[in-house]
Amino acid sequence: MSALEEDVRQLTEIDSGALAMLNSSEINQQIATAHKYPRNITRFRDEVFSLATLNESVAESCVYALPRKQDGKRITIYGPSVRFAEILAHSWRNCRLGARPVDMSGDYVTAQGVYHDLETNVYIAFETKRRITDKNGNRYGADMITMTANAAAAIALRNAILRGIPKAIWEDAYEEARKVIMGNAKTLATRRAEALKFVAKYGLDEAQVCELLGVPGTGDIDLEEL
């Protein structure tokens, strides 16, 4: 057994559950806090739209593209990326997340991602596997195994988040990010610049706009302020 496998074995023995790093009293306190300060769906949607369409670079990071062959033809599969899932979790609030490798024996590494909604008590654990042998069946070196394990953990966490936060309230934000990439929609930064240019015609400078909106700087002007 390699040192890396031994580390995973020990970690699994320490916590055989799904990343239960906090004791029950701490979790109960987090749940109580979440109920005291519940999330706001409108604010969530505004934040996701703002962040996902901030600029073309951010929009591109929100979408993954995988080339595949199907019936002899090359196709591309698109979907929400790990970065997009991070935006969702950040904006959704009141949730606990975690990911780790749980097994590295044999030809695969298995990683587990966990999503726990503190408001609704919805708990989702998702596992994903990645091969750690080359085309000749030789096992990867320690560094490559670590990289593969990290990638598997990130994907498992993404899938747990996407299943935990209802798709109905974020799907259109994801589609808007795709439109930005394809050039069919403007980024938030572009819309912000156009709005500032428009009000400047009426004698308002950026400082006056920020004071009126109650934001510290133009970079804090999001969809609601627009």
Q: Helix fraction?
A: 40-55%
What gap, in angstroms, lies between the N and C termini?
58 Å
Mean pLDDT: 87
Question: Which strand-content bin applies to the residues?
Answer: 15-25%
Main pleated sheet: 3 strands, antiparallel
The total of helices stands at 9
Walk across the major sheet and give the strand order. Answer: 3-4-5
Stretches where pLDDT falls below 50 for ≥5 residues?
none
Tally of extended strands? 5
The succession of helices and strands, N to C, reads HHHHEEHEEEHHHH
Radius of gyration: 22 Å
Computed structural class = alpha+beta
Shape: globular
Put the structure in a nutshell.
With 226 residues, the protein is α+β, with helices and mostly antiparallel strands. The chain has nine helices and five strands, in the order H-H-H-H-E-E-H-E-E-E-H-H-H-H.
List the helices and strands and how they pair.
Blueprint: H1 3-14, H2 24-36, H3 41-52, H4 56-61, E1 63-70, E2 73-80, H5 82-92, E3 95-103, E4 108-117, E5 123-131, H6 142-164, H7 171-182, H8 188-200, H9 206-213
Antiparallel strand pairs: 1-2, 3-4, 4-5
Question: What does this protein look like?
Answer:
The chain has 226 residues and is of the alpha+beta class. The chain is 49% helix and 19% strand. The strands form two sheets. A three-stranded antiparallel sheet has the order 3-4-5. Strands 1-2 form a two-stranded antiparallel ribbon. A hairpin with a 5-residue loop joins β4 and β5 (123-131). α3 runs antiparallel to α5, α3 packs parallel to α7 and α5 (82-92) packs across α6. The model has no long low-confidence stretch (mean pLDDT 87).
